Amino acid sequence: MAKPVLSDPIALRVPVDVLAAIEAIAKTAERSRSWVMVRAMRYYLLNEGADILEIEQGLQDARDGRLHDLDAVLSELDRLAEDDAA
Prior knowledge:
Residues 12-47 form the Ribbon-helix-helix protein CopG domain. It comes from Rhizobium herbae. InterPro entries: CopG, Ribbon_hlx_hlx. Pfam families: RHH_1. The model has no long low-confidence stretch (mean pLDDT 94). The protein has helices at residues 16-29, 33-63, 70-85. The longest helix has 31 residues, at 33-63. By secondary structure, it is mainly alpha-helical.
């Protein structure tokens, strides 16, 4: 696996308790603080960060008029449920 391309170093101030947890995890895992922080950021980006971006995309779709009529959606769901029940 190829090493990722890294940015220039950045400064980040974190609460003391968060840093203590990062350091404890890094020590236990025999990894660097950077490794722990990058993994934590990747996890955030894949979960909560992705949710935020999906919500923004939905809002942009609504602003652009890309909407579906609720009654039509519910009718289609009812039709699909009837097909599955048959």
